[in-house]
UniProtKB/TrEMBL annotation:
SUPFAM superfamilies: S-adenosyl-L-methionine-dependent methyltransferases (SSF53335)
Residue stretches making up the Methyltransferase type domain: 192-289
Protein name: Methyltransferase type 12 domain-containing protein
Organism listed in the record: Nonomuraea recticatena
Comp. bias regions, Basic and acidic residues: 316-327
Segments passing through the bilayer: none
Length: 371
């Protein structure tokens, strides 16, 4: 299955030159880090020397309580890239102060980078807007949803989750997995999609099911907004819609499902292992879990995604119980593979291949079958 899924993914990006992906990712990551460093240098006591705790710097920035953890998250990223020092007690010092010419050059190089990654202009616009609105985002004067869904439209979100090289590859590979499952099924399919959001992956899966026997495809999300959007976009038929919070128990349908889909959302679970165990328990023999997941947080997402993860109240980062220490958002590839195995699932697809330039984008398709 790994070979067939990879072949389908490659066909979806046929003709694209992927040789410059790693360099382009590096340029966009650098732009985001320089923008964050500029904001911290301009508006916090770090510019005056000394060592300072992240909470002090968050107060300097006027960060809302629920967003204060993000400042520590940013500083950790800056430290990892050599742009800030960190003392043994967790305080920070020697923040790099970007030069104006350096920032200008980074912005100038953004266009060639986004083209190399297959990003549409909407995504580059969103990155620049988010960098320019960091003070308002931190103070909670504007929500990240306004950047992802301007005027209530999913254009920027489509750019993040669908309209780029790696998303086209992964969604096409996922569709091939479903095609194989549908051809082998001995009865109408039963499918559950968790946290389906704007339906970026759903849109590639549904055409595979056209004309095939499907008992139901249950499209779920935490937000009524996404369910209403999906109803307008996809209609009904075998599609059903339901509100679902993955931090609580999943639907109680043990041993009934053929496929559980979770595209770029399973990392939101407080404990990924528990979520996968619950998903595995829902599967009929031979059923599959299909995940699309990020395995490394790239700095270019630091100006948007952390704001979407902030808890509604309090000053602590999102609650994690599966080894993601501190402010770490994503599991590493080997951690995903380990949790799938421990949930009683045998991994049969793990893409892109190690030698594929797309691997530098740190998003992967995992498909695992119930043992």
């Amino acid at each position: 299955m790994n070979v067939l899924a990879d072949r389908a993914g490659r066909a979806a990006i046929s003709g694209a030159d992927t040789s410059g992906v790693a360099e382009a990712i590096g340029r966009l990551d650098r732009l985001a880090l320089l923008g964050i460093a500029t904001e911290l240098h301009r508006r916090t006591r770090l510019r005056n020397g000394g060592t300072h705790a992240p909470d002090q710097l968050a107060l300097d920035l006027g960060a809302a309580e629920r967003h204060r953890w993000i400042v520590a998250h940013w500083l950790d990223a800056l430290h990892e890239e050599g742009l800030a020092g960190r003392a043994a007690d967790g305080r920070f010092h020697d923040l790099y102060g970007p030069r104006r010419a350096e920032l200008t050059a980074a912005r100038t190089g953004m266009e060639s980078a986004r083209i190399a990654l297959g990003y549409p202009p909407d995504l580059a616009t969103m990155l620049l807007r988010s960098l320019g609105m960091l003070p308002e985002l931190l103070r909670d004067e504007i929500g990240v949803q306004a950047l992802l869904y301007p005027d209530g439209e999913p254009g920027a979100a489509e750019a993040v989750y669908r309209d780029n090289l790696v998303s086209r590859y992964l969604n096409a590979a996922a569709a091939e997995v479903l095609r194989d499952l549908a051809e082998q099924a001995g009865r109408p399919l039963r499918i559950l999609e968790l946290g389906a959001g704007i339906g970026a992956t759903t849109a590639d899966l549904l055409p595979v099911l056209a004309g095939r026997p499907v008992e139901f495809y249950l499209f779920t999300d935490l937000s009524p907004f996404f369910l209403d959007t999906a109803r307008r976009r996809f209609g009904t038929g075998f599609l059903r819609y339901a509100l679902l919070d993955i931090s609580t128990d999943l639907p109680r349908q043990p041993g009934e499902l053929d496929l559980v889909v979770a595209a770029t959302m399973a990392h939101n679970a407080p404990h990924v292992g528990r979520l996968l165990e619950q998903a595995a328990a829902l599967l009929a023999p031979g059923g599959r879990v299909l995940l699309i997941e990020t395995v490394r947080e790239h700095p270019q997402s630091l100006t948007t995604m952390p704001f979407a993860l902030s808890p509604r109240k309090g000053t602590r980062p999102p609650e994690r119980h599966d080894g993601r220490a501190g402010t770490r958002t994503y599991l590493r590839r080997e951690e995903w593979l380990g949790w799938l195995e421990r949930a009683g699932l045998r991994v049969e697809v793990d893409l892109p291949r190690d030698a594929d330039p797309l691997a530098a984008m740190s998003q992967r398709l995992f498909v695992a079958i119930r043992r």
